[in-house]
Amino acid sequence: MSTIYKDSLKTSLLQLQCHFTWTLLKQDVDLDPLEETIVDHIKFFRESNIAYYNLLSYICHLKNSNDKALRNLQKAEEIVQKCHPDEIARRSLVTWGNYAWIYYHMERYEEAQTYVSKVENSCKNLSSTADGKTRLPEVYAEQGWALLSFGGKYFERAKNCFENALKDEPNNPDFNAGYATALYRLEDFAFRCGEDTSPSIEALKRAVELKPEDTCVMALLALKLQDLKRVDEGEWYIEEAMRKTPDLPYCLRYAAKFYRRKGELCKAVNILEKALALTPNSGFLHHQLGTCYRKKVFELKKTGNPPQDEVERLIKLAISHFKFVADQKPKFVAAHTDLANMYALGKRYEEAEKIFQELLQRNDLTCPEKQELYFNYGNFQRWHMRSESKAIEYYTEGLKIKKDSFGRSKCSEAVQSLLRQKSERGSRDATYFGTLGLIHKLNGQKQEAIECYEKAIALDHNNEEYQNALFELQLSISS
Predict the structure, then answer these.
(1) Within 13 Å of residue 464, how many CA atoms lie on the same side as its CB?
(2) DSSP string of 418-443?
(3) Are 194 and 188 contacting, i.e. CB atoms less than 8 angstroms apart?
(4) 54 in Cβ contact with 94 (< 8 Å)
(5) What pTM was estimated for this model as a whole?
(6) For the segment 40-94, what is each residue's pLDDT rounded down to a tens digit?
(7) What is the reported pLDDT for 15?
């Protein structure tokens, strides 16, 4: 085949709306657990399997299993023919687009061109515009769900996709459910990253009104009501969701989260174990169980004289669940820090240190992830290694990353708390004032920083670091 023809085919492929053109990057996900999650979805959500089979085909391609990818697209086609015989073209655009791309990657160019032509002809027939490029709301929605599957950095784009879908069909229950889910996840993600976003409560309420049988959205509404301290109202929705779908793991996992946050740990664990029996490899469920057992440990320790064998049993349980997730999902950084913290709690310091060092050497962490890591490692140094100087060093590293986030706030509070303790013990030397000056400087408190550096220099006249910092601060105020 000529280079000109291949270039022309590639240009046509790039015009298609499907998983291959939606910038879903393999480096942002752990492919094996994502594939398993999609397979579980297909098992439990029979009504939306066309989109899941399409997404699964793309995941298989990313794993270099193109034959398996084609088989999943065939399953999507079978569902369309069975459930939507009058709308085959409308319901198949993404499937055909994926076919075209997979055949192109397999160097079966004629078959790729056949599917490109099918999409182009169908778009012309379905479009209300002369150029035949109107995007259908179903395609926007399918893109939205695919983006949600690829993690936090995709949530904003997912929200925009559902908004576009709703422009054409504002009362579509599925589009409203997708929009509400995207808003909820975006809100949660933005909170951890220290960003503001539009509240999801009204969107969740509307989604539940339009689709009361969608117990996953109902459970998200319950969690959002709990966030807003409307716990009784939230619990009504959780109980209703579990009554409607007692064996749906995706509903059960949110119910367990609700009861864990409410403090009913035994109930949360029972629900999680039921859900885990249905989806035994769910990283989410294992992480939630680990979190429950960790909370039980802290509750026991608060009693002052906990039974040591029970504490050790719970620590081992938490470690086993966190380790399952950490092994399964290298990109789930929180699971790795949770595992390290539990090793530390169990006095397995070498194993904890090994995990922290592995995380500190990674270069794929986001700024909020790095800040959380510095906070956790600072805590490890402070409480387990008894090194206040190293704790201050790592809390400060978290502050040096300028992006506001929950982790940065925790670093700031922790380092200031530690410095206050040192001050109360009478340790007000040049290093103390120099460190406090740096903290104020990193938090944008220039005048307080200047005062601290002046006190540090008074105690250590020849310290160039303090002198340079003071000079820069004075210059920034006068300029």
Answers:
(1) 0
(2) HHHHHHHTT--SHHHHHHHHHHHHHT
(3) no
(4) yes
(5) 0.93
(6) 999 998 776 899 999 999 999 999 999 999 999 999 999 999 999 999 999 999 9
(7) 95
